[in-house]
Amino acid sequence: MLTLTGISINFGGLQVLDAVTLKIPARGIFGLIGPNGAGKTTVFNLITGMLTPSSGTIEFAGCQINGMAPHRITRQGVARTFQNIRIFREMTLIANVLVALGDRPSYSPLNVFMPLATQRHAEALEYDSARELLARVSLADKAQRLAGTLSYGEQRRLEIARALATRPKLLLLDEPAAGMNSAEKLLLMDEIMKLEDSGLSLLVIEHDMRFIMGLCRQVAVLNFGRVIAQGTPEEIRANGAVIEAYLGTDDEVQERSGRRS
Fold first, then answer.
1. Distance of CA 103 to the CA centre of its chain
2. Among 71, 115, 129, 214, which is 20 to 30 Å from 11 by CA?
3. 192 and 233 housed in the same domain
4. Rounded distance, CA 233 to CA 68, Å?
5. What is the pLDDT of residue 125?
6. CA-CA distance, 122 to 101, in Å (whole number)?
């Protein structure tokens, strides 16, 4: 479904990504992990058109998308969430989702010229769609609450509902479990698995290794802008290069232990 081939990008002479190649299959949950500064969010920004690669290509569903404007990539069927939650805190949950529904390709400003009864019917259908999306993330009972009154975990789930409003084929989740407690993480994991069951493909960045290993069928590991490993969770756990990237070499581990003692 999504293929990155030889993707590189430089910021002011600093090599952030170096010839990254990834293939995200249709359906399923694919994990992207790595230490802080490895380039994970940069990959998301490239896929969604917020950045343009210095070299390489990005193809989605057989169409090259690098160089496209972000809104065009969204219309191709790619949606995302962000590390820092981006919701309208002073609006209700239902209003937050309705805003996203209004950005779908099926919406047209000409709708305002429809007969009043037809317009009200269309608005009712949009409202029902928004409630259904909130139900998919277990927030339908809070539809009329202000988004700013939600817990952190609930705000994360609201952001997912807004992303789903664009009817994506591929959903990119950037650290969706950040700031959640154990119970919230378990609920989120269940909801993400239900999204997979509905036929959606997902690419997930996450620092919680237990969360990502329990969720994903395939995992790729970035370190210093390069892919150093890719495989099943079991293969990644046993990979020496991955262990070294997260824990350091034996000498580095001993040095840190010595400083603590």
1. 18
2. 71
3. yes
4. 33
5. 81
6. 12
Q: For residue 173, is pLDDT > 90?
A: yes
Choosing from 121, 144, 167, the residue where a domain stops is 167
Reported as a single tens digit per residue, the pLDDT across 12-43 is 889 999 999 999 988 899 999 999 889 999 99
**Residue 248 in this model has a pLDDT that exceeds 80:** no
Nearest of 12, 14, 75, 83 to residue 45 by alpha carbon: 83
For residue 33, the domain's CATH number is 3.40.50.300
Domain boundary among 167, 202, 223: 167
pLDDT tops 90 at residue 2: yes
In a domain, 15, yes or no: no
Give yes or no: residues 118 and 195 share one domain. Answer: no
Could you tell me the pTM of the whole model? 0.84
Helix (H, G, I), strand (E, B) or coil at 54: coil
d(CA 111, CA 123): 10
**For the residues of 94-151, what is the DSSP string, one character each?**
HHHHHHHHTTSTT--GGGGGS-HHHHHHHHHHHHHHHHHHHHHTT-GGGTTSBGGGS-
